[in-house]
Amino acid sequence: MDFDSERIFYSDQSLRAPPPKFSDPFAPIPAADENGDPNSAAEEAANRKYEQEKMLRTNTISANGEIEYSLSTVQRNFKEFIRNYQTNSVFIYRDALLQSVRRGKNCLSISLSHLNEYDPMLLSLVMETPTSVMPVFEAGALDALKTFQLTSPTSLDDPDSEAPQLTVLPTDIHITLSAPHLKPVDLRKITSTHVNKLIKTPGIVISATRIRSKARQVEIMCKGCSAHKKLKITDPYGTVKLPGRCPEGGAEADCGMSPYMVMPDECVYTDTQSLKLQEAPEMVPTGEMPRNILLAVDRNLVDKAKPGMRVSIIGIASLYRQNTGRKSQNNNVKQLYINVVGIQFENLGEGGGVGNTSFTPKEEEAFIALSRRRDIYQILTNSIAPSIQGDYTKDIKKAIACQLMGGAAKKLPDGMRLRGDINLLLLGDPSTAKSQFLKFVEKVAPVGVYTSGKGSSAAGLTASVIKDSRGEFYLEGGAMVLADGGIVCIDEFDKMRPADRVAIHEAMEQQTISIAKAGITTVLNSRTSVLAAANPIFGRYDDLRSAGENIDLMTTILSRFDLIFIVRDIRDEERDKAICRHVMGVHINAGDAAAGNVNQEEDDDDETVAEKAGRVAEQGGKLDIKTFKKFVQYVRSRCSPRLSEEASEVLASQYVKIRDDVRKRCSENGGDTAQVVPITVRQLEALVRLSESLAKMRLAAEVAAEDIAEALRLFRVATMAASETDSNNGQDLLAAANGPNRDDYEKAEKFLQSRVAIGTTVNKQRLVEEAVGMGQNANIIARVLRVFCKKGEFLEKSSGRTLKRVK
């Protein structure tokens, strides 16, 4: 900070209040009035004592309960702060105040670090007694504004010029505070010791009411003598109490009891709004409900924060009495709320991660060294759910690693936004660790929200409009709004009602949620990835049925998933033995792992994260959950790779080839082009996002050729494999059968071809009973009949009760 020669610095000594000297209120009180009435003299003595105490309270302020400071001196000191504080020879607050007033905002944001640099005692006062100091600061800002030249020199010389000029000063200046370096207080740790103190707390805005007009200054008039009086209201949820008697009316003119009436047209109003702040999902302890607190914002801070936004609130912890509509047994218990004096927004980073995440220099150095390893892709894959093993899980883990990194979001010149988040769907048999993958991702993701499809509704996932006790409607965000910048894990996705699944279509592609309910029309951000797990419609995946018969999901929502994995529980002896050995090992080593986790939690700090990341960067191995999570945050906030011309040409040619292969396969199967798992332009964008996520792992600025090759491989083993099952329709079952089952299938096939002649119609139940009587397996006969129906050799009639052989 620069200091000019004429700057006046008010120290702590100048802020200390001198002994109060008031003449009129402390004058000697006579024993009787002029008429000799001792009662009037006693009443005057009581009134004068009240005025004495009031003047002492309103002209001094106590800091730390010991030293008293003069409010007029604090006001004068803050005025000089606005006038004289400068950085790089620029009077930042003087210019900001003039610019704000000329624009009609009448608002000035003050940094607490600048205030501490100018005078630490001013910072101490605003931290300890913000309720008393903030009005003084606003009065000091108004005094400073009066000393400035509000009209430019050109406007003085030429009255007809269009230069901005002010002829009427504003009546007040709204002072807001910013404190980027102030230590935040967790929402659940706010206690009675923070009441009437300035605090900073982070969280997510989950609801917002409509903007209301509240009286800040009430004008009242006596009905007897027409005397006017002004009453100020400082409490956002408080009301004014009208005086019981009129002090203007003397002995001759008694105005009676309750003589005052409110003059609504002469009151001064201000805009107010109520918000609800909730803990961030990653800050909620396991097994506990997230807590929330009420926020009161006014004037220039209204309509700034929408549901779903991550903010850090700077405000005054206060109390209010909640009106429940009935008499309370204990009037001393009040509700806690925060009177907001500043809002700091946490925007998404360049790569789609939550912004304002701090990293130490050692962490950044360790993460950069980790990203330069040639096997970083394999390290991240092995670090995902290490307790889950199997050949079928390798590609799923690689896809989840890509989802955690995410692609690069893009904003086009016309305002359109292309999402960078990757959506995954795990569809398959029970007991294949789908839910365990979801639970792990919830812990590792920067912002993770886990929910079940059966217990979720459309309003719970997107947003809802709720009616409060006053009869007014306000907006409250759902799971996909709260997970903005993270991942939503939806288990039992197939158990959701179809109407609820349709509600998240917009959130999965456009990444916004549009609301038009109860007179509230708005758009909320939902920049989140979706990791969903579902079971087939029959519980297990049936190879003899098409993908459309196994997947009870519409094509519109399947096309929004970048990768779709068909997870099957294949009965193989060697595979079962390997799984048994791994599961037994997990149970045997569970005790040692629990002891290691306890020791790990005891040594839990930022330096430990840097050391662990550095050790993995040097020696290899696996990342623990906390280090993995911090690395994901670093990558998502610092890296945003782009495609090169060569990479874009390769992707375009490969996408055209994939579409051509799908078209040929459909023509070979009878010309049916309708597929449950479609291959559309959305899948081309999915390939782009997968390539960018692979480049993010190396913190590369450009997508390489190996990234495109791996993205195409993942797409083929996931979505393309699911699409091919739709086109095969179980026709290759007989050819794929091996071992003793193959002979049974061949016998069943020969029996049906010899028993049913071309053009004849038979009863299906009698045909199966006849085959069983000849030693055939009923299940195999039923499966072979379904295959023949898929091939078109048999035609079902009478709701499947009869069969006709057509070829």
TrEMBL record:
Q: Which PROSITE patterns match?
A: MCM_1, MCM_2
Q: Which residues form a coiled coil?
A: none
Family indicated by similarity: Belongs to the MCM family.
Q: Where does the record place the region Disordered?
A: 1-46
State the function annotated in the UniProt record. Acts as component of the MCM2-7 complex (MCM complex) which is the replicative helicase essential for 'once per cell cycle' DNA replication initiation and elongation in eukaryotic cells. The active ATPase sites in the MCM2-7 ring are formed through the interaction surfaces of two neighboring subunits such that a critical structure of a conserved arginine finger motif is provided in trans relative to the ATP-binding site of the Walker A box of the adjacent subunit. The six ATPase active sites, however, are likely to contribute differentially to the complex helicase activity.
Supply the name of the protein: DNA replication licensing factor MCM5
Q: Name one Pfam family in it.
A: MCM5_C
Q: Which GO terms describe its molecular function?
A: 3'-5' DNA helicase activity; ATP binding; DNA replication origin binding; hydrolase activity; single-stranded DNA binding; single-stranded DNA helicase activity
Origin, by domain of life? Eukaryota
**Annotated MCM C-terminal AAA(+) ATPase domain residues:** 376-583
> SMART domains recorded for this chain?
MCM (SM00350)
PANTHER family linked: DNA REPLICATION LICENSING FACTOR MCM FAMILY MEMBER, DNA REPLICATION LICENSING FACTOR MCM5
